[in-house]
């Protein structure tokens, strides 16, 4: 299980359920604790638990890799609260991530447990709620993807009980425990006296309660702590005491317990006493997720002494009291002297933190805490603070003030000078001005400061103080009837609030009279969802260990560009379990590999990126293998790296290939224009962040060089080909098998081969099975991601916004090898028009060769980058013309029958229908007026809205890949085994293929099974990519099934009333073959790039999205208020899967355009190597109102059963969120008198949003001149 849920009974006679991270929680700490994993609550063989059933049936499980963790978070909540509120359900998932679904269906399924459930479907133009029945029976529009009345009820009496034998331990005296491992001793003392003695004996020992910090350090930072002491069960360290001055918490109290106690106090005590308590609760609201808060200790948070701790600034500003103990005890206040350096405190080595007293506030005392992070939920702070002021009764003169900040120095710091200067001053405008100037100089940062974002961090210090100033002013006004703050400033003081998610999904029901057994067009559940929800689904690394299996850990370069001088494995050989080291010398065939044959399996003399694979260590276990790999010593001679696109342009470091499309007359187009705008836009890359990292198991077969590989890959053919090439055997000796992947998104199309080929070489050398599953940090470092792009544009247009001419140049960062970069650039240039008819157009694309890990395929494959630049110049044009953006966009849209810039005629062009429906569904014009009014009334919060179209070409741009095969076996009992060339990675391909086979054969889906995809059943399969897999594999399945039906025709004619089983048995007995292959190729793809004519794509998928956001101009925070999507997916094969792909793609795009930022050092070292620094969207990032409508009555004659491709096209619709943010920033800039077009690069992070909202505070923090300092990170 990915997460575990457990019952704790520490020192209390009551039991409680907690969810926790299985990967962090130490086994030693589970003594006296009952553990329940996902397998323990239900399964498909007996009965699913309602929590498992509902996520499966509500389509909340796609790839399924995250599902057990989500199931256990929900299960824990229900054990503690059988009838939760919707808000509690959303909060329970703060520590869970999903990369496939877009979260909406998970919340929708679990809404059925909530006591305030409703249906979550607001009325959309008079329709939408399930209580209203169908909108219009003639249209057969459905809003319901699942039937809640079919769910089994939750019965709390049927849950596992707390084990009675553990209850008996309460009556027995506790004993000190000691566990000894290979390198670590773990002590669990039972009394304070034992704890003090142990700390005196082992002064360097680490104290661990939740292991949420030490666990990360040992796992990811290679730290080793030989002695660990766990004070979890010591009564004094868990006690909570109410004193005259405040509430005193034992240092082992969990953060969840802290929050619970403080919430009760806030409810019971007068509000003037609980200002600090409310600040702590507000910080805890966004502190990690419940799985961490449940186990992380208050004392651990203080003693870790992190410079970005969310609680330490609160404790410092409030002057909380700490009790320290060794042989005696002493009490100190946490003040500016407590932290002595980075992660250091004033405690002596044998001293322990026993407790912390959080004080009550007095009358006239006010306290606020603020935090800004990249993502709202479960994220570390960029800057945080605790701010306190005390006034004498009836006065607004400052008596005491403490301003404490995190994220501004190597420790939590106090703005001492500023505080001293403000004492005795009146809480008025001039105090604000002076405080900001003083803070700007006192809280200065070096432009090279670790963490970067220097201007943003400095501005946040002032913004937070301004929010505090306004908040206190508001409270003083109530107390003293003083000056009221301007009404348009009031919203700046509001704490973040988000309403529970509301949604509507509209799709067309199947036509009346369609057989109940024909599932095509019905919202059929993903066929593996139940197994995924119960933890039974088998992923690559779940395959049991083979006898004598070895584990491989890759040894990779720490330099971006260098010569390898030596590789020393002496120290590695001394690690227990070490078997051998492999390198390029051990490759039996060719060490040359890669799509363009420009890569090596193992680096030979030179490394060309950080993460370049040099070799690998084989050992008996994963732990030993990792330890030995860390012990390999490599010496280098540095060479100069090229890291960024700008450096590559300057040094002319390009791959030779250049892509150019030109149509019309550029010069004439610019001459006809009334205005010309030039600009540029940078789009950052994106990490795939599939939940299952790259994994391969290679099993040598001892005969003739045969080998079987189990791989998490989208591309079996290349995996087979590269392994055969490396081992020097023909492809017929290599079998590659894929059952399912825990997500792919393009990241497993080619880059999976860097792992699988190395594993195969290791298995060939040792003659033993070898396994390798990358850790997240290794995966992010080695495997590359979406290409960063830099686009330069020059656009000519008329006064009315009609585009006459476009000249655009694209540069992408390809990394250290070609991989699929040419194909990605090809698609970017094909999509540089987005959906707009531009009579004179030229686009040129070049791929930069740099010293980064090779970038690769990622959902959209260059299309989103090309279209994003188009929308950038389109928003500039609208701003320059002074016209509403939606009018300018609509004016330039293509019409049916128009020719694209690559001269393909648009047939079945439904985009204008999607546009009109989206305008109507979103109530665009009325809401636009409301937004304008909101912006007039609010100075520091602004709303924005944008409507964005997309047109996405469907086909591989490499023509020969547009083919697919299938194999159908019918057995004598009527059971059908189906195989095709596509792989299942959560997108529901296997479910759709079974639906296609079911309709073609005329039998129920229950009779058809897909076991896996393999190279020995369907050879030479194209990768599962380019959104065409359902199209081409569906046609191949249709072709194979039709062959079977044709062969059965005479038998069916002879016995028309017989059953399927009768006909199959009769066919077998008549010696008729019951096995058939199927094949399909997309016809008429004949584009000629030299002539710029012919057909590049089989057809296009269309969609339109309208999004509304609200930004906080002071912090750069934004929230997604509402999104309406209308998508043309033809006649949907499965509306549940298609809507799931639309929502999942959209939310992945929200990550790409607003959240996810890869950060590199100037030397090409990747900083963002895991979820700690790299943030994908979480449950709280989806639009509060999320409406998706499938366009009706638009069959597509070019694909299987009139359907359309749906994997990649919706991703770009999330650009509507980016341009809604830009729209809101425009409103903010107008307040500062700025009306010209401005540059906003992607992603629109809080930093970019805040810096673009130029105001008095940003002007107090001027930027250092580029070139005068070395930045901490660079834009690649």
Automatic annotation (TrEMBL):
Enzyme nomenclature, EC number: 1.17.3.2
Annotated positions binding [2Fe-2S] cluster 2: 63, 66, 98, 100
Chief location bin: cytoplasm
Compartments where located: Cytoplasm
Stored Gene3D superfamilies: 3.10.20.30, 3.30.465.10, [2Fe-2S]-binding domain, Aldehyde oxidase/xanthine dehydrogenase, a/b hammerhead, Aldehyde oxidase/xanthine dehydrogenase, molybdopterin binding domain, CO dehydrogenase flavoprotein, C-terminal domain, Uridine Diphospho-n-acetylenolpyruvylglucosamine Reductase, domain 2
PROSITE patterns in alphabetical order: FAD_PCMH (PS51387), MOLYBDOPTERIN_EUK (PS00559)
Residues covered by the FAD-binding PCMH-type domain: 179-363
Enzyme class: oxidoreductase
Keywords: 2Fe-2S, Cytoplasm, FAD, Flavoprotein, Iron, Iron-sulfur, Metal-binding, Molybdenum, NAD, Oxidoreductase
Similarity-based family: Belongs to the xanthine dehydrogenase family.
Name this protein carries in UniProt: Xanthine dehydrogenase/oxidase
Gene: XDH
